[in-house]
Design brief:
The chain is mainly alpha-helical and 86 residues long. The chain has 2 helices and 2 strands, in the order αβαβ. Strands 1-2 form a two-stranded parallel ribbon. It is elongated.
Length: 86
Amino acid sequence: MKKLFLSIKEKFGNIEVLINNAAYVRAKKFGGDYSKEDWQYNLEGTVVSLDICTQEAVKQMKENKKRTDNKYIFNVWDEKSKRVYL
């Protein structure tokens, strides 16, 4: 992830807007039929990746001194998060 943000910075300059839409789950039966591996996979795909992306974007946003009032982070939830998988 850090390499991705570095390549974005090199090609386009510092980030001013981040849109987080990192969310996915392994569909299982309703009622908590998730293994420990499923939970880890889901956490890494949602919470951990969102946190890493936000940290890397904020680093670049802080470096960019020219427009300190025009930096935004949007967190968008996946449409799938509104559904129950049976």
